[in-house]
Design brief:
There is one protein chain. This protein has 77 residues and is an alpha+beta fold. It has helices spanning 9-20, 24-40; strands spanning 45-48, 51-56, 59-64. Helices cover 38% and strands 21% of the residues. A hairpin with a 2-residue loop joins strand 1 (45-48) and strand 2 (51-56). 4% of the residues are buried.
Amino acid sequence: MTQTVRITDHAILKYLERAHGLDVDAVRRHMSGLAATAVELGAIAVTIESVKLRLHAGVCVTVLKPSWPAIRPERTE
């Protein structure tokens, strides 16, 4: 019987970095440069390169599809 192994996002990132040579710091610098003006202007999100970067207090906290809202709609009960 084959058991399914759960793989964390951290493990995937480290795999790409160590097994395939992904330069994570270069990606971080690239994204930071793309988001810098939006952060300076106080934006909550910026759409660049076909994705939306969600920003909070000068930090890119997630990456969304461009059609997704930058903030979650309020839940109604």
